[in-house]
Each structure stands twice: as structure tokens, then as C-alpha cells.
User: Fold Acyl-CoA dehydrogenase family protein from Piscinibacter koreensis.
Amino acid sequence: MSNTDRRTPANSVDRDAFRDMARKFAEREIKPRWQQADREAKFPREFYVAAAKAGLIGLHIPESLGGADLGVTEEAISIEEQAKANPNLAIVALIQGVAGSLLAEHGHALHHAMVRENIAGERLLALAVTEPEAGSDVQNLKTTARRDGDDWVLDGIKSFITLGGDCDTMAVLARTDPAKGRHGMHFFAVDRNTPGLETSQIKTYANRPVPTYRVMLNEVRVPESRRLTAGFGAIMEGFNRERVMVAARWLGHMQTALAWAMDYAKVRQQFGKPIGANQSIAFKLAQGHVDVEASRHLTYHAAARWDSGAPVKDIILDVSSAKLFVTQAVYRVTQDALHIGGGWGITEELPAMRMALDALVAPVTVGSYEIQLRVIAKQLGLPCD
Ligand SMILES: Cc1cc2nc3c(=O)[nH]c(=O)nc-3n(C[C@H](O)[C@H](O)[C@H](O)COP(=O)(O)OP(=O)(O)OC[C@H]3O[C@@H](n4cnc5c(N)ncnc54)[C@H](O)[C@@H]3O)c2cc1C
Assistant:
């Protein structure tokens, strides 16, 4: 799919009712589950099955492949509501969306069957792009795919692959023709149990319910039928969609942190009055309110631009602005909530530290602060490298 012929969503829904449904889903399926998953750093697979049953996987995928053919706006609403309950389990649908899109838009019948299974809750997907030496600089990736008869043989190491050890299939980006640089890359749909593919969990302080993995590819043989028609360009477009979802994720989390801090500031008494009666505390909360409102506008503006079908090149500025602002704002809001919690804030008796820890990952994934600033500067016509 080129920059100019993007599909617009075929269907629409009553967005208030849809938000209500997503909120109820999060209360029913995320709230009772996330703390144990966080403690154990173990993905609860039944959550993915529940999300699929609720119709929240593959929201934007065409109906012909089992999806709902809705827009980025509905996906953002779903992610925002889920993230209010827990920002980590909320990314399950997000990752399925990015990997599922690659298979749907750049695959054939075999991949399309995988997409149908994914939407039905029967095939969990992961996206394997990042490598130990190629994080922000995706073009520098080293994983190779060598043609051998009717097969391809993959070698390399991927890092930080969310759900890499839990998924059934991962979309792996590899160099198929090193001489062609970023134009010589393709994705392959590789099943996790393929001989030569091994995973090991990377222990993290944040994002624990949806773990990340190192994926070692050692002479992993897959047939040509597993190759997608797309590579680097497709994932850059996918990242731009994902950035809107990431903004929605942190918008949801920010609201929960702010609501908690507001309540705490009203009930916690010192010097005979609520701590929120002090300007220095009240101003933090007032700033938090503005951060939430500004984040909401930027996120849904970027989502609406995406749904308009405008060429990706014309909406990059809106997308990166939303991603940058929201990920900075969630940092401010959660750090302020932690501060308002005082000494109790860093205990396990209050949620402030957990919320602040989770928000630390906000600026990193799908293009860091600096990468968004670089994109924005270039969009503004600055000769910035
Ligand atoms: C929890 C988590 C989940 C993830 N899930 C996935 C996944 O499912 N699939 C996947 O493929 N990847 C995933 N990633 C990887 C993620 O996209 C990378 O971590 C990210 O791209 C940054 O790469 P890096 O960590 O190697 O940092 P680096 O690229 O090494 O960056 C380090 C620092 O240098 C800065 N920097 C880099 N380049 C520049 C520059 N040109 N100018 C100024 N500053 C610069 C960065 O902003 C950053 O502050 C995940 C990461 C995390 C933490």
C-alpha cells in the first residue's frame, strides 16, 4: 500500500456506547487480573482470548478477514479505556493490530488465515523488529534471511520483543538483499515453535504483565510462503499508526494517575487541612488536568487525521506531536502523583510508584522523545539529522 491510497474505515459505531463497552471490558477482564500478572511478570493468555471474544482484536482489519473495519479513533478509544485499568495489558490489542495489519495488507491466503485466527483469539502475534544494535536506528538491523531453494534461512537476534515468548507467530523483519539497504528487507511470519528459534525473557521493572523477550534465530528455516511482500516502509507506516495508539495508552494511564492523586490530596491531612489545600500541591493537579485535556485533543486529532485517509506523509507531524506530548505529560502527571503520595507513595500500599514506574517506558517505545523531535523538526523543514 503506498502513501496515497490508504483505505478509510468502512464502518462506524456509536462512539459513546463503544467507549462504555471498552470500559466495562477493562473493569471485568483487566482489573481483577493485572496485579498478579505484574507480580509474576507472566502474560495471562486468557486475557487475549477474552479481548478477542469481546471483539477488541483486529478492530481496523477488513470484515472479509474477520475484523470490524473500524477506524484508528475506535482503536484509540479501546486502548485508552483499557489503559485506565492497566497500561500494560492495554497494549495486547495494540501489538495484535500492528502485526495483524502487516499480515492483512502485505500477505496472501496463508497470512490471511492467520489474521482470522488472531481475531478469533487462537493465534497470538508479536512484532520482531528491534535488535541489540538496532533500536532507534531500524535501518541498521543485522538479521538476515538467505534464500535456499524454496525456503528462507533466518539468522540474527531480536530484542525487546513484547510477547515474543508467549506468541504463536511473530512478524520478523530481516534483510533479504543486503545490497539494497532498507529496500532489501522483508517480514516473515515465523511460528514460535519453529526449530532454531529460541526466546528468553528480559526482566524489566515496568511493563511486567506483558513481558519482553530476546529472540534468537539460529538457522531458522521457513518456506517462501511465509514471506510478506513488505518490509521497512510498511513498518514505518505501521509505527505511525502505533504512535497514535501509544498516545491513547498513556492518555488513559495519565487519567488514572491524576484521579488517584486528586483523591489523595483531598483526604490526606497535614497541618490540620488536606494537603491539596496548599497551592504547591493544587497547582500540580491543575497542571495535570491541562495535560490530560491537551493530550486528549492531540491524540484524537491525530486519530481523526489518520481516519481521513490523508497520505501518511501529511499526518506524520500530527502523529509525532501527539506521541511526544502525551509521553512527556504522562511522565509529569505520574511523577507528581508519586510526589503527592509522600513517603507512602513509594510503598506497595499505594499505587503511585507502580504508576510512575510503568510510565517510565512511555518515551522509549515506537520512537523515543528524541526520535519524535527529530521527525517533527524534519517535518518543519529544518535540516536536522
Ligand atoms: C517495554 C518495551 C517493549 C518493546 N516492545 C517491542 C516490540 O514488541 N517489538 C520491537 O521490535 N521492539 C520493541 N521494543 C523496542 C523499542 O522500540 C526500542 O527500545 C526503541 O526503539 C529504542 O531502542 P533502544 O532501546 O535500543 O534505544 P537506543 O536506540 O539505543 O537509544 C538510546 C537513547 O539514545 C537516544 N537516541 C538514539 N538515536 C538518537 C538520535 N539520532 N538523536 C538523539 N538521540 C538519539 C534515544 O532517544 C534514547 O534516549 C520495546 C521496548 C521496550 C522497552
The two ends are 27 Å apart (CA to CA). The beta strands are 125-128, 144-148, 151-162, 169-175, 185-191, 197-202, 212-223, 269-270, 273-274. The mean pLDDT is 96.
